[in-house]
Amino acid sequence: MRDFVSEPKHMIFTEDLKNMVHMAEPTDLDLILNMIKKFNNQNVEFRFGSFIFGPVVMRMFHFLDAPNEALKSFEDPENSGFYDQLVSYHILLDLLYSHEMFDDMYRVFEKVQEKQLNMTKFPKYPLILVLAACYKQNTPKSLEYATKIWTEMTSVGTVPVRRAATLFAALALNQGAPHIALESISMQKPHYVTIRNIKAIALAEMGRVDDALPVLKAVMDIDLPEQNQKHTFFDETISKVRSCVEKTENKDLQKEFENIEKALRDRDLIDNQTLDSLVTSEINLTNRNTRKLQGMPQMPYGMRKNRQNTRENMV
Q1: Global confidence as pTM
Q2: Please, which of 135, 188, 195, 203 could form a disulfide with 208 given CB 3.0 to 4.6 Å?
Q3: Of residues 231 and 163, more confidently modeled
Q4: Which residue range is the domain that position 57 belongs to?
């Protein structure tokens, strides 16, 4: 393959690239980058197959944990069109997120919006990942960027999924903008744990404690004896509401809050989870018809190498 890449008269065929991508080790990445470039620039009249490489190559970069090489290949002008699939953008953003390369993620997301693949400017999973990057950065600038995306999205009638809404709302709370947090969850169903906790905190921090207390009280009206179906509040939520109640210096409100907190604790409706742990938890997709991926390795590269070394030492 090195000879084929270096010789102008030689071509890189679909099967060549396919085989290399599936056998790749970290030491092969430079060769594969050059193969992709040459393959993409060859005369298209010699390509008769319909194999789409973008997602497969991005999975290879993800598997080998190579964010810099993935970004380099993605941004190379000579690879124009090679990664024009939403799945490719999704995998790249996920890889960059795991390495906290947030500024690079913003740049990639802008490409997503420019391309408008599948006729959408705000694809679900890339949107979640870029809002997660904003949340992780947790700066006034990241809130400004997230607000810009949110405003554009809602102005064209796009309804965000719950995880996108909770990430944006949690960022707004961290940046002292509870009014933005409250507005961002307004279209979400209130019975989800993240939504009701955000709502209680936002109302309290806006000075609307008398509206926050009924939110806390509402879960006690739900009769679900099963332990795993209890509607709970986070301990940090209760602490934040308590702090806001104390600031009012209203004895009646303070007494009402104390009664609500005692009732919640007596019914075991306060837990030690945090908003941060829930909004940043991995999204696991389940599908009854999902089949095991064919051809791609199922074990992360690092684990595979460790197991291989263990076997060699045993021998």
Answers
A1: 0.84
A2: 203
A3: 163
A4: 1-119
